[in-house]
Amino acid sequence: MDKHKAIPQGYMTVGEIASSYFVSQTFRLLFGRHKEPSYSTRYAEIADVLMEQAAVLRQKIESLSESLRELELLREEVLQMQSVDFKKYADIIVNLQMKNDFYWLIKHFDDQTLDHIRSHFIKTAEWRL
């Protein structure tokens, strides 16, 4: 993720969501910007599109719930560390995102040990303890 972007990688902006297929398809169906099928077909199409939108939203909610869990766990770690160490915070976040249950060990490593771990595991994209 670009550290200057406010929206994390993998998330859409409001504009991207609004222009997504499901939203535009719903508006086309609701406001008749396409050929006019019979009303029963139209209702079925609208219901299908709304069902697809609900599935997408469920997935986003699940992802946001996971992000919230990670944020709360990071907060607990920050309070326990009682220091400001953004490198360790970043390492904890990466490990939380990778679902590494041993993320909490990071706060106990010194900088030299963390640099050693980073240099060996970043190459393989497996930054796990």
Largest sheet: none
Would you identify the regions where 5 or more consecutive residues have pLDDT less than 50? Answer: none
Order of helices and strands: HHHHH
The DSSP helix count reads 5
- Number-wise, the strands total 0
Task: Describe the 3D structure.
- The chain is built from 5 helices and no strands.
- It is mostly helical and 129 residues long.
- α2 packs antiparallel against α3 and α3 crosses α4.
- The relative contact order is 0.07.
Describe the structure concisely for a colleague.
By secondary structure, the protein is mostly helical. The protein has helices spanning 14-18, 21-31, 39-81, 86-97, 111-121.
Question: What are the defining features of this structure?
Answer:
single chain; 129 residues; mainly alpha; 0% strand
Q: Would you spell out the secondary-structure blueprint of this structure?
A:
Layout: H1 14-18, H2 21-31, H3 39-81, H4 86-97, H5 111-121
Helix pairs in contact: 2-3, 3-4
